[in-house]
Amino acid sequence: MPAPEAVRVAIQRDADIVAARQRGREMATAAGISGSDLTLIATAISEVARNILAYAREGEILLSVESRDGRCCLQVIAADEGPGIADVELAMRDGYSTGKSLGLGLPGARRLMDEFDIVSAAGAGTRITMRKWAR
Amino acid sequence: MTDGYNTPPAAQLTDAEVERRRRVFGLTAEDLARIAELRSAVVDHRAEHTAAFFDHLARVDEGGDLFRRPELLDEARRLKEEHMVSLVSGDYGRAYIEQRARLGALFGRARIDMRGFLSAFQMLIGSIVRRVAELHPTDTVAAMDRVVSIRKLLFLDISIIQDVMIAEREQMILNQQEAIRELSTPTLQLRDRLLILPIIGLLDSFRAKQLTENLLRSIRDRRAKVVVMDITGVATVDSKVANHLIQTVAAARLMGAQVIITGLAAEVAQSLVTLGVDLTDLNTVGDLQGGLEEAERLLGLETRRIGSA
User: Fold this and answer.
1) Does chain B have fewer CB atoms within 10 Å around its N or its C terminus?
2) Percent of chain B predicted with pLDDT > 90
3) Pair B248, B212: CB distance under 8 Å
4) List of chain A residues whose C-beta atoms are within 8 Å of the C-beta of residue B265
5) Any idea where the domains of chain A sit in the sequence?
6) What is the pLDDT of residue A104?
7) Mapping DSSP to helix (H, G, I), strand (E, B) and coil, where does residue B52 land?
C-alpha cells in the first residue's frame, strides 16, 4: 500500500499522541528512513504532541515526505493556536519547564531530529517544523 | 458508561449551528413555502412512506437488530411517522434536529449501519416523490421544483443521522480503549517478595499512572522487596513516560521495594539518552532473565540444579 504524501493528525487527547507517533513511523518508512531513527522520530513527535496537549490543549501534527537534492526526509510540523511561548530561547534550554515536566521535550526533540525550527510568540500559538533525513 | 442514546451529540447543537446547517443545505424561504404545500402528499401518506423505509430494511436484511427487538421497531416506526409530520411542519429548528438525532441514535442502538440506512432512506424519498408528482400530474417543472426543495431538507436529515452514527462509533471506540487499558497492567508474583510487571504495548500517561497505582498497591499487599519491570514490548518511551517510570521507581523505593527494569530496547535507550533523560536512578538489566537473576541475588536467593544433568 503506497503511503500518502501528507498526513494530518489532530491532537486533542492522549490517544492522538499515539496515533501521531504511529503515522510518523509509517511516513518515515515511506521516506526511506529505517532502524533506530524510526524510534527517535516517534519520540520527537511524542514530545511535541505532548506539548500541544499540555499547553495549547489542541492542535495538529502534519507529516509529509519532502525531498531536496535527491534526498528524502520526513517533515513534521506541530502547530497550535495556544498561548504561545514568551521566551523561545529559554524554552529550548534543557530542564526549563513552566509545567511540571522534566523540561526536556523541546530541546530533546531538537536533538532527536536533524532540523528543528520553532516559531512562537506569546498569544500567537506555536509552530514547530522538524526534519529527519534518510541516510 | 452513561446512556448516550438519550442525548445524542447532534441534539446538543446551538441555534446558530442549526441555522448554519440549514444555510449549508441551501434551504431558502422559497423552499420552505414549497415544502409547506406538500403537506397532504407527505402527512396523509406517512404510513406508506414509513413502510417504504422499514419494508426495504427487512427485505434486504439490513435492519440489524431492529426486527428482533419489537420495542425498538415500534419506537423507530413511531419516530419515523413523527418525522413525516415534522418534515412539512415548517419548523426546522432545534426540536426538529433533536428528533432526527434521537432516531439516528436508535438506529445506532439497533446496529443499522450507514449503508442500510441510506438504502432505506432513498426508498422513503422515492415514496414521497411519487406522491409529490401526483399533486402536479401535468406540470413536471412544478413537481420537480418541489422535489428539489424537499430533497434539501431530506439530505439535511441524512447529515444529522450521519453525525450521530459517527459519534456513536467514536464513543464505542473510546469505551473499548478504556477496556483495553483496564486489563493491561497485571502484576504477577513470581515468588515470595518478588513481583514481575510485564508492560506490553503503548505507555500513554493514563496507563502509566494506572501502572504506578497498581504496582504500589501490589508492593504493599504482597510485601514485595524486589520488582522486575519488563518493558520489552514498549516501542516508544518519551520524556513524560520516562519521568513517570523514574517517579514510580522512587515511590516503590520509599515503600521498601527495589525496581529492576529489563528489556529496554536499544532504540529506546538511544532516544532517552538523546532526549537527555537522567536514568542514573534506574537499575536496568538487559533482559528479563538477567533481571530475575539480579532480583534473586538481591533477595539472597540462589538457584541451583539438583543432581547431575
Assistant:
1) C
2) 55
3) yes
4) 39
5) 6-133
6) 86
7) helix
Which triple of cell numbers denotes residue B151?
430533497
Mean pLDDT of B160-188: 78
Beta strand spans in chain B (E): 188-191, 194-200, 226-233, 258-262, 283-285
Burial of B192 (0-12, 13-18, 19+ CB in 10 A): exposed
Write out pLDDT tens, residues A21-42: 999 999 999 999 999 999 999 9
Domains of chain B: 9-179 (1.10.490.10), 188-298 (3.30.750.24)
**Nine-digit cell at B281?**
536512578
Residue A40 · residue B274 · CB < 8 Å: yes
Strand partners, A9: A61
For B156-186, letters b (16+ CB in 10 Å) and e give bbbebbebbbebbeebeeeeebeeebeebbe
CB contact under 8 A, B270 and A107: no
B16-59 per-position pLDDT tens digit? 888 888 899 999 999 999 999 999 999 999 999 999 999 999 99
Q: Is the pLDDT of residue B4 over 50?
A: no
Say if the Cβ atoms of A42 and B277 lie within 8 Å.
Answer: no
Does A118 contact chain B (CB < 8 Å)?
A: no
Residue A15, chain B, CB below 8 Å: the answer is yes
Tell me if chain A has a CB within 8 Å of the CB of B269.
no
Q: How large is the average pLDDT for residues B266-284?
A: 90
